[in-house]
Write a structure and sequence with these properties.
The protein is an alpha/beta fold and about 190 residues long. Helix content is about 25%, strand content about 30%. The protein binds NADPH dihydro-nicotinamide-adenine-dinucleotide phosphate.
């Protein structure tokens, strides 16, 4: 299902829409609770294997851009993806990841990979910065309220259109109802 969404919608996003990013689709990929909480104490507040699977399918072989703190909380480069870490610290280095100092630089790097889409995977600071430029949001809405200390911006229906939604009920492995949503900028 995820692949279909990606392919169909790629072809629907005209070049003029993605002009600001040189034809690359800038997508945010996030899981948020009902109050837009996305993290607490530099960790995810939940464990939802279904969402991890969705994340893996969507980002496989694609460039993923993350803030330095999110990279350090994951602790390693994710296999099978091109990890790009953004920092302001010119001395910061890691093997197995590309380092950039701005979102524009990350987009330029993605172009050199010959792909059509780059996924911003968090955290809060980089989501906030990339939000205004983003073309698409893959939002896993977790139908629960958690305590948190970092939030995703409100996805305003005046600016964003819900183009796909798949609702999943909790089961023995996934403790919370959740919905996989895809939003496209109007
Ligand atoms: P981030 O992961 O956004 O990293 C912030 C760091 O990224 C900054 O300190 C800076 O690094 C660098 N950075 C950010 N913006 C820029 C910029 N415009 N230019 C250059 N460098 C930049 O940290 P947050 O604390 O905001 O978010 C982490 C939280 O988010 C955690 O709780 C994590 O669990 C959660 N999270 C949630 C996700 C979800 O989908 N629910 C997904 C990912 C994370 P430096 O200090 O080195 O200069």
């Amino acid at each position: 299902m995820q692949d279909d969404v990606s392919k169909n919608e790629n072809s629907n996003l005209s070049l003029s829409v993605t002009e600001g990013t040189g034809g690359i689709i800038l997508s945010l990929l996030v899981a948020a609770d009902e109050n837009n909480v996305i993290g607490k104490d530099n960790q995810l507040p939940w464990h939802l294997p279904n969402d991890l699977k969705y994340f893996k399918n969507l980002t496989w072989a694609m460039p993923i851009l993350m803030g330095r703190k999110t990279f350090e909380s994951i602790g390693k480069a994710l296999p099978g993806r091109k990890s790009i870490v953004i920092t302001r610290n010119k001395n910061w280095q890691q093997t197995e990841v590309d380092v950039v100092y701005s979102i524009d630089e990350a987009i330029e790097l993605a172009k050199s990979y010959d792909v059509k889409e780059i996924f911003v995977i968090g955290g809060a600071e980089i989501f906030n910065t990339a939000f205004e430029k983003a073309h698409r949001i893959y939002l896993t809405r977790i139908h629960h309220q958690f305590e948190g200390d970092v939030y995703f911006p409100v996805v305003n229906e005046k600016e964003w259109r819900l183009i796909k939604e798949h609702r999943c009920t909790k089961d023995e492995k996934n403790a919370f109802d959740h919905s996989f949503q895809v939003w496209k900028r109007k």
